[in-house]
Design brief:
By secondary structure, the chain is mostly beta strands. It is built from no helices and twelve strands.
Length: about 170
């Protein structure tokens, strides 16, 4: 059976907030995919990130292994993060560069099992003549059997008005 991908909602940055709140997510799809293209307004070159909450809570959210790779080919892996989320580009980076990523949530509407999901994102840093690109892959786990009906991305700094996060529903994966 072929799969189909349907745009559910896009939220654009405002320049004055760091919150992207996807509420009332329908349970009619097999899989959710969030496409992220964001940049914060903080002056720091490295950029910040998003903490992610599910159904309005960070309780029972686990994040274990990650990997990152920068421009010299070095690979780091393992450990846990104190924040549950994704990394994005900062305002100190070259104009027009945005962190991009994907957050995948398979079987999000299933009410029998906990929800493993993953994110994969890239951050490009170009400031003061320094070229570095980072690739982050993170394994996430929500240890609840409830269907996921709300996902919130929260940054501690404001997000650029040209930023956006789009939510897609995928059927028959």
């Amino acid at each position: 059976m072929p799969s189909s991908m349907t745009l559910i909602q896009t939220i654009n940055g405002t320049g004055s907030s760091g919150v992207f709140d996807f509420t009332s997510i329908p349970n009619t799809y097999t899989h959710l995919m969030f496409l992220v293209s964001c940049r914060d307004t903080d002056a720091g070159a490295q950029g910040g990130g998003f903490a992610i909450s599910v159904n309005g809570s960070t309780a029972d959210l686990l994040e274990s292994y990650y990997f990152n790779n920068n421009n010299n080919g070095a690979m780091n892996a393992g450990g846990t993060f104190s924040d549950f989320g994704m990394t994005i580009n900062g305002n100190g980076n070259a104009a027009g560069t945005y962190g991009v990523g994907i957050l995948n949530m398979p079987n999000y509407a299933n009410t029998s099992n906990p929800k493993p999901f993953w994110s994969d994102n890239m951050q490009s840093v170009y400031a003061s003549g320094t070229n570095t690109a980072y690739h982050f892959g993170k394994a996430h786990h929500w240890n609840q059997t409830n269907a996921i009906n709300r996902v919130t991305f929260t940054s501690t700094v404001n997000i650029d008005a040209q930023s956006r996060i789009s939510l897609y529903g995928i059927s028959a994966l």
